[in-house]
Each structure stands twice: as C-alpha cells, then as structure tokens.
C-alpha cells in the first residue's frame, strides 16, 4: 500500500515538473493524490518514531559438574552471561516470559565417556523437546545440542530438567549452556 502511494506521489511530482504547472497546480495535484492514498487506507507515519522493541534474551552456562541427579530434577545453569529483560533466574534455572510471544531456546550438554545425560526442555512442567548426550561405549566427550521454539504467554515458565532416570553426568566449566531469545 505504501509503495502504491509513493509511486502515485512520485508520478505526480514528475508530471508536474515536466508539464510546467504553477505551484498552486502542483499543490492541488499533490492533495488529490494524497486523498487517493488516504482512500486506499494509507496512514501517514512519522519517520522518527521508533517502535518499542521488547528485547528479551539470555545466555547461561553450567560452572559445576553435575552427577547422579534425580529424575525430573531442574538443571540450574548458574552463570549468566546475558540477561536482557531479566527473565532468567540463575538461582532456580527457570526462564519466565515477561510478555506474550514466540521464544527460541537452545541448550547444550557435554558428558564424558562411559556416562550419559538425557534432558528435556519443559514449559510449565510439560515436556517440549529432548536432548541426549550419551558417552556409553564411546571414547571422548560427547556433546549434544537441542533447540525448541515455544509460544508463551506472560508468566509462562521454561526450564531444563533431567528426564525419567538418574545416573547422569554433565560437565561444568561453562561447557553446558542454556540460552533463549524472544523472536
């Protein structure tokens, strides 16, 4: 719609410049095209008005090794590198949506050979997606990353927790991380 009105006004000024119209005729022509644009639903917008952007983003890591957690135990990523909007709580490991919208979350788990760590991201206690980092039968340090886009209402909570069993190992030293951003 804006493009059509812009083209109409550009055309009007172009024709006015080539047709040797008087200034009053140019103003009249402009007002006529402006009326057409308004009739088509064009709304005048001030160029300097910046929309309020609700920036919500966080990034956190795990500083301590986790071993033998219970089933459905929250993984608390205790080091916060970024927390725009202050929606992530490093003491509980819970992200609380400050506004409605779609949020994108990613989490990475590093385990060691002979160990495993199966986790899930949950919204208000309901599983959304899984992550499985399995080092059993392997040498080295397996790492896995999972991602979830979640539609949230203000006050909804998201966190990472262990799945149904125990015997986990997640490596600390900032190798495991949890992050999210409002799209």
Automatic annotation (TrEMBL):
Its main location: secreted. InterPro entries: C1q_dom (IPR001073), Collagen/C1q_domain (IPR050392), Tumour_necrosis_fac-like_dom (IPR008983). The keyword Protease does not apply. GO terms for cellular component: extracellular region. It comes from the Eukaryota. Pfam families: C1q. PROSITE patterns: C1Q. Keywords: Secreted, Signal. Residues 51-183 form the C1q domain. It is found in: Secreted. Residues 1-19 form the signal peptide. SUPFAM superfamilies: TNF-like. This is C1q domain-containing protein.
């Amino acid at each position: 719609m804006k493009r059509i009105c812009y083209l109409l006004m550009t055309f009007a000024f172009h024709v006015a410049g080539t047709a040797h119209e008087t200034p009053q005729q140019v103003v009249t022509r402009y007002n006529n095209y402006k009326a057409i644009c308004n009739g088509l639903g064009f709304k005048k917008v001030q160029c300097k008005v910046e929309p309020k952007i609700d920036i919500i983003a966080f990034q956190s890591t795990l500083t301590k090794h986790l071993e033998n957690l219970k089933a459905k135990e929250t993984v608390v990523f205790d080091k916060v590198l970024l927390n725009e909007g202050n929606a992530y709580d490093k003491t509980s490991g819970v992200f609380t949506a400050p506004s409605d919208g779609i949020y994108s979350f990613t989490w990475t788990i590093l385990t060691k050979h002979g160990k495993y760590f199966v986790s899930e991201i949950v919204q208000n206690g309901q599983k959304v997606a899984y992550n499985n980092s399995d080092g059993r039968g392997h040498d080295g340090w397996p790492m896995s990353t999972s991602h979830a886009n979640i539609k949230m209402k203000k006050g909804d909570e998201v966190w990472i927790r262990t799945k149904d069993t125990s015997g986990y190992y997640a490596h600390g030293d900032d190798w495991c991380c949890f992050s999210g951003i409002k799209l």
